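Hi there, hope your week has been kind to you so far. Please have a think about how the structure follows from the sequence. I've dropped the whole record in just underneath, so have a look:

_____
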Amino acid sequence: MALLKTVEPKLFQTAIPYKPMGKYVHFLTIRITESYPLFQTDGELNKARVRAGVKDKTTISRLSMFKRKQSTPERLVGRELLRNYGLMTAEECEYNVNFAMDNPDCIIYGFAIGDSGSEKSKVVVDTAFSITAFDESHETFTLNAPYENGTMAAKGEKKSDGKLDGELGSVTARINQQDHILPQTFFPSIVTLKDPTEASFLYVFNNILRTRHYGAQTTRTGRVRNELIGVIFADGEITSNLRWTQAIYDKMQSNNSINSPEPLDEDDVISAAKSAIEELMADEFIVHTDFIGETFVPLLSEVKALTNSEAGIKSILQKADAEAKEYANKHISKKKSAAKAG
């Protein structure tokens, strides 16, 4: 029984296929920072030097949000839900340690366990880039770790030479500097799901909507909101995150919506993002069905109605789990048997 009424069944696969069948769904997402997240490698914020726009050929540095910084938090949210509703246990499937190989997370997002088997991810995420330049999108903070008395000096703390800080009145060196991404920094990102079934579509959709923290130190900072502006069903891949970001920049520049150092207005970003993707899709050489703007509202409302109730979210997870186990029984078990025989 279909869970959605707003999407034609022909846009979905009836079961998860073993080989690529040329159906794609693209989730058009604007990731909006709402605190001071860290997307970094080796202690430095990730950035890339690229052209400002498609038309504007000025070269600027942009913040980068690598693909694993996006996909890992989203799949962990899905795994949390599967455990919450009794469809997976921590003992039978531990992330990056011991994959069960037969649940929605493993089949949809993929896994690799040495000689035991692997499954390629059906979710494709590429590096996302900030609309605004690096210099306008980050700030350097001095971090410290005060003692319980509220100061940077603690009486009685032993130093390496055996003397006490308190006796000498010295101050601890627990001070560090760290670049943080500013709030209201926007990262346009297209999340692609290959050969979606209705259940896998809803599973990935829900994970994107629910995920709230990205990047390092996710328990203390990294708050990010995902604003979905549409989904596109197609028989091929569409434009890149970088080109979409550059097209948005061109739109906002021409509308005088970029007024550094002021943060971008969210309504202006959303409007430019919709307009830019519609123009980019008009240049594509693929068959596609777009749910953008007004046509996306009924679909988003229907998905939210499903995911807002316990019965609704259970129906999504149970259907996704049944499909994953059916796929695993047909294909993963064969791989395991072949590996043992070899």
Summary: The radius of gyration is 23 Å. Residues 9-138+183-341 form one domain. The longest strand covers residues 224-234.
